[in-house]
Amino acid sequence: MVMTSPERAACTTAYMRELSRAASALGVTKAQLRAAIDAADQWCDDNAAAFNTALPTAFRTAATTGQKNL
Q1: What's the per-residue H, E or C state across 34-68?
Q2: For residue 13, how many C-alpha atoms fall within 13 Å in the half-sphere facing its CB?
Q3: By Cβ atoms counted within 10 A, which residue in 14, 15, 53, 58 is the most buried?
Q4: Own/partner long-range contacts of 47-52 (Cβ < 8 Å, ≥24 apart)
Q5: Could you report the per-residue pLDDT of 5-22, keeping only the tens digit for each?
Q6: Contact 12, 37 (CB under 8 A)
Q7: Using N-to-C axis directions, what is the helix angle for 30-46 and 5-21, rounded to 10°?
Q8: Sequence-distant (≥ 6) Cβ neighbours of residue 1 within 8 angstroms
Q9: Distance between CA 41 and CA 15 in Å, rounded?
Q10: How confident is residue 27, by pLDDT bands cut at 50, 70 and 90?
Q11: CA distances, 57 to each of 31, 50, 51, 53, 65 (Å)
Q12: Do residues 15 and 35 touch, judged by C-beta distance below 8 A?
């Protein structure tokens, strides 16, 4: 499921804080980072079926949707 706009914003903020703590400059603007997070989230949603199929059968059949979406 695609994240909501507030969830994507929170993810962007958390990632920026992590980079700041690690002293790892990324060299992109906040808007560019947000666009990358938006694109990655959309890609995950678009490819969820392929991801599910790639999981080992034992886990795929035992895990809930929520457990597989972590």
Answers
A1: HHHHHHHHHHHHHCHHHHHHHCCHHHHHHCCHHHH
A2: 6
A3: 15
A4: none
A5: 999 999 999 988 888 877
A6: yes
A7: 120
A8: 45, 69
A9: 14
A10: confident
A11: 39, 13, 12, 8, 14
A12: no
- Tell me how far apart the alpha carbons of residues 6 and 52 are, in angstroms, rounded to a whole number: 26
pTM of this prediction?
0.70
Residue with tokens 């790639």: 54
Token reading at 51 = 């991801």
* Token pair in block for residue 29: 């603007």
